[in-house]
Design goal:
This is Uracil phosphoribosyltransferase. By secondary structure, this protein is mainly α. It is built from six helices and two strands. A two-stranded antiparallel sheet has the order 1-2. Helix 1 (9-21) packs across helix 3 and helix 2 packs across helix 3. The two termini are 38 Å apart.
């Protein structure tokens, strides 16, 4: 399977629909995306074909229309994406980035409580200061 970083923003939109539905025909995806975007049917079909070629989707070809199933879970895709992004950040900037993300995201009270608990656990062993990891120590 290809790395999740090879999935385009448009392909993510297709995958979000299929993850939500659990499985989907191309018509179901087209119906949703035609209401949300100005994309044409051919564009959406092309995105589905690309996702299949990249092995993010599996097609059940035993009947018509084909039914598409995700080959990667939404949670795994999110984890890979977030970890790939944070691997590119300076260690000294990750906390600030997490704070910015929290500030700009719609999250439920239950999710907030879960974050508080994770932060309290993390705080127990956290260093006073995180060292920059942008340069090699030999420099």
């Amino acid at each position: 399977m290809n790395e999740i970083e090879n999935m385009t923003k448009a392909e993510w939109q297709v995958m979000r629909i299929i993850w939500t539905l659990g499985e989907s025909t191309s018509k179901q995806v087209i119906d949703v995306l035609e209401k949300k975007t100005d994309w044409k049917q051919a564009t959406i079909k092309t995105l589905i074909v690309r996702l299949h070629e990249k092995e993010f989707l599996k097609a059940d070809v035993s009947s018509r229309p084909y039914v598409y199933h995700p080959e990667i879970s939404e949670d795994d895709a999110i984890d890979q994406t977030v970890n790939n992004l944070f691997d590119n950040l300076c260690c000294m900037k990750k906390g600030e980035a997490i704070g910015d993300l929290i500030g700009s995201s719609d999250i439920s009270k239950n999710e907030i409580q879960g974050l508080i608990e994770k932060l309290e656990n993390k705080k127990r062993n956290a260093p006073e200061q995180v060292k920059c990891d942008c340069l090699e120590e030999s420099l």
